[in-house]
Amino acid sequence: MDLSALGPEELSRELRAGGIRIIVYGLGLVGSTLAAVWLRFGAHVVGIDRDPATAGRAAAGEGPAGEPLVSEAFRVGLSEGRFRVVPDEGEIEARPAVRFLAVPVTWSDGRTVLNYLEDAMEAAVGHSRSGDAVVVKPTVPIGTTRRLARDAAARAGLRLDDDLMLIYSPERISAGRAVLDVEEHYPAIVSGIGPRSTKLAEDLHGLVARAGVIRMSSMEAAEAEKMFEGVYRDVNIALANELAKVADAYGLDFEEVRRASNSQPYSHIHSPGLGVGGTCIPVYPWFLVDNALGRGLVPELTMTARRINLSMPEFFASMADREIGGLRGRRVAVLGLAFRGDVADSRLSPTYDLVLELLRRGASVIVHDPLIAEDDSLRAMSVALTGDLGTALRGADVVVVATDHSAYRELDGDSIRSMSGGSPLVMDTRHVLRPDRMHGIRLRQFAGHTQ
Question: Which Pfam families match (predicted)?
């Protein structure tokens, strides 16, 4: 079956009937979300993941933490016989398929790590038949999709855009709302290696993206679009951190200034804080650096922004050291391990660097998070993680609010004094706490309220 020859109605009918199968390589947040979106559409989906724990959770109808729509879709798909999880595509019967590659692409030791994507591309192309499609989802440096697919297709004896449709459509999701981001919140960015692939990309994504589809002129343009999104946000957050430091030095409330500045439609200053976490914003600037240096360019602003955001944990540890008159021997309770409020995701969280800086200054540290129960990285530092605020605050000399979890907005001076047994210094790096509720507490908000 030539998928590119089908119109949207025929695609829809075949997907729902199981004549065309959706196969998702990688069942992390992105892959699980894609599988769930297509299950909710009514398609027949196969999830592939080599990690036994990840595969086992999906096969039991359990999606990533904090994504209830994913788990619900998995359970419905399993009960209706439309969802399977296997470690390798060789375990299922051949059928026309769209293969989504949703494996991680990271940055380590000064280079882009493509191992997972290279392996997934090789496997997906190797299992493809004439007329099938491969869709690449992770954010990658410019030129990656074309290069990896060209090499894999040559080894498989397939011609791209003739025998095999190749699509690049970057994921655009945030933890905690992933399914609705795909279905409702954002247009799908699509591109193809040729006209047939591009047509299929538009028709396919148009079935599930109610916010519409934006067709790019090339896969390289689509790769750049997603990368530039992340770089913009990293640079803007770095600017906010720099401006907030100036406001702090003058005793100004940065939020007041920011809101007034953003009343002008050309100003869109982001919020400052402890730093930038997750596997997107802290990583994509390095992809841009890689691309730029490869063409003889030095992206100085991008690199400076990265340095500023990476420096924020040290900045706050130094602030705490000054405010308390030395951290050595002090007990510090860090509130929040997740990189963003109300998500159970600590990947590349700036809290880790804050903990290291506090330990380096001789403090005793305990971390609280209402959504994360265990963490190997903290365990390796011999730092306790607890979900009980009373345990975290007991005996604390310093409390640092590192993550903007909703649970922390309910804290007040009386509860902090009661749980800590004293009157600790409270440092709010995210403007979470309400100063009017911090009676009897020494509150230090970054570029905000001090009492």
Answer: UDPG_MGDP_dh, UDPG_MGDP_dh_C, UDPG_MGDP_dh_N
Residue 155 per-residue DSSP state: H
Q: Enumerate long-range contacts of 421-424, CB under 8 Å, 24 or more apart.
A: 421/394, 421/395, 422/395, 422/396, 422/397, 424/333, 424/393, 424/396, 424/397, 424/398, 424/399
Cα 316 to Cα 275: distance, rounded to the nearest angstrom: 10
Domains within the chain, CATH numbers bracketed: 3-217 (3.40.50.720), 305-445 (3.40.50.720)
Query: pLDDT tier at 451 (50, 70, 90 boundaries)?
Result: low
Confidence of residue 65 (pLDDT cuts 50, 70, 90): confident
* CA distance linking residue 76 with residue 83, whole number of Å: 8
Mean pLDDT of the 188-217 span: 97
| pLDDT beyond 90 at 181 | yes
For the chain, percent helix, then strand, then coil, each to nearest 5?
Answer: 45, 15, 40
Cα separation, 76 vs 51, in Å, equals 23
**Structure confidence at residue 402 as a pLDDT band (50, 70, 90):** very high
φ, ψ at 229 (rounded to 5°): -55, -50
Tell me which residue has tokens 């290291």.
356
DSSP assignment, residue 89? G
Residue 164, both tokens: 């095999």
Half-sphere exposure of 146 (CA within 13 A, CB side): 13
- The DSSP secondary-structure symbol of 84 reads E
Q: Could you tell me the pLDDT band of residue 449, with boundaries at 50, 70 and 90?
A: low
Residue 182 has pLDDT above 80, yes or no: yes
Tracing tokens 């080599």 back to the chain, one arrives at 50
User: Are residues 187 and 200 in contact, defined by beta-carbon separation less than 8 angstroms?
Assistant: no
